[in-house]
Structure formats: structure tokens, C-alpha cells
Design brief:
mainly alpha, 2 domains, 64% helix, extended
């Protein structure tokens, strides 16, 4: 396999207006969808092309309501960089499978924000440990907070 670093290379540019940005997003989306069978074959993925396309669509849908044209341009740049790296085989299998980790491992998801995760951990730990009633409530919350910060940083 010959490596051609300029394969799929494009100049970065800013969108002139929202119509231009929309057409660029649709072009990028279509490129990803059309490349799904090639990606499946290239990386020997054990999943159907339809599942790949569904994940690609969900990644685009995640940013559907971005309303700042500069952010759209940045997302387009990142999308094209990922596309180029993927089709040039500059990634390894774990880099591709990281997008599917949340579907296969429900415990792999990160909390939406720090406080949500902190409260989830507190509830899980409080249900397992009985010594909370012996401690002052403020000290218990402080200790769980420090525990969660250490856990969150280690990930």
C-alpha cells in the first residue's frame, strides 16, 4: 500500500455565508457516507455498513444546532482531517472503535457535567458503604467530592 500524504488534501477556507457552510457540511456528510464500505473493508470491522453509517450520521447530528459560522468551519476542518486520516489508513483499529465504545459498554460513558457525575458516584458509594451515618454529613460530602475528583482526573 503506497502512502500518499496529499491524497484527499484540501485547502482550509472559511465559509462565506450560511448557504456556503450548509453545502460544505452536506458535502462532507456525503463523503463520509460514501466511504463507509471502504472503511469497513479497510479496517476489517465486524459490523455492518449500516451501523457505520448510523454512527456517522449521529456524529453529524450531534452538532446540528451550532449557530456560529466560525464553529461550523472548525467542525468541518476537524471532520475533513478525520476523514483524511481514516481513508489514508493513518489510524489503527482502536481509533475507529472508540466511536462505538459507548454503545458496547454502557459504563464507558462520561457524565454530562461534573456535578451529575459527582452525585451519581455519591449515590453508588453511599448505597454500598454504611459508615456514612457515623460521619458528619459535611465531611462525608467532602470526602466523596475528593474521591470523585481523583477518579475523574485519573480517566
Amino acid at each position: 500500500m503506497v502512502i500518499n500524504p496529499t491524497y484527499l488534501a484540501q485547502r482550509t477556507r472559511q465559509s462565506v455565508n450560511w448557504t456556503d457552510a450548509k453545502s460544505r457540511v452536506l458535502k462532507s456528510y456525503r463523503e463520509w457516507i460514501r466511504a463507509a464500505p471502504e472503511i469497513q473493508t479497510m479496517y476489517s470491522l465486524g459490523m455492518p455498513v449500516s451501523q457505520l453509517r448510523t454512527k456517522m450520521r449521529s456524529e453529524f447530528e450531534r452538532h446540528r444546532y451550532v449557530n456560529h459560522i466560525g464553529t461550523v468551519d472548525k467542525l468541518l476542518y476537524e471532520s475533513h482531517a478525520e476523514f483524511q486520516e481514516t481513508l489514508n489508513y493513518w489510524k489503527q483499529l482502536p481509533h475507529i472503535l472508540k466511536y462505538f465504545r459507548a454503545e458496547e459498554d454502557p459504563t464507558a460513558r462520561l457524565p454530562q457535567n461534573f456535578m451529575t457525575g459527582f452525585l451519581e458516584v455519591c449515590l453508588q458509594c453511599c448505597s454500598h458503604l454504611q459508615f456514612i451515618s457515623d460521619l458528619n454529613q459535611r465531611d462525608a460530602i467532602r470526602s466523596w467530592y475528593l474521591y470523585f475528583v481523583a477518579l475523574y482526573i485519573s480517566q
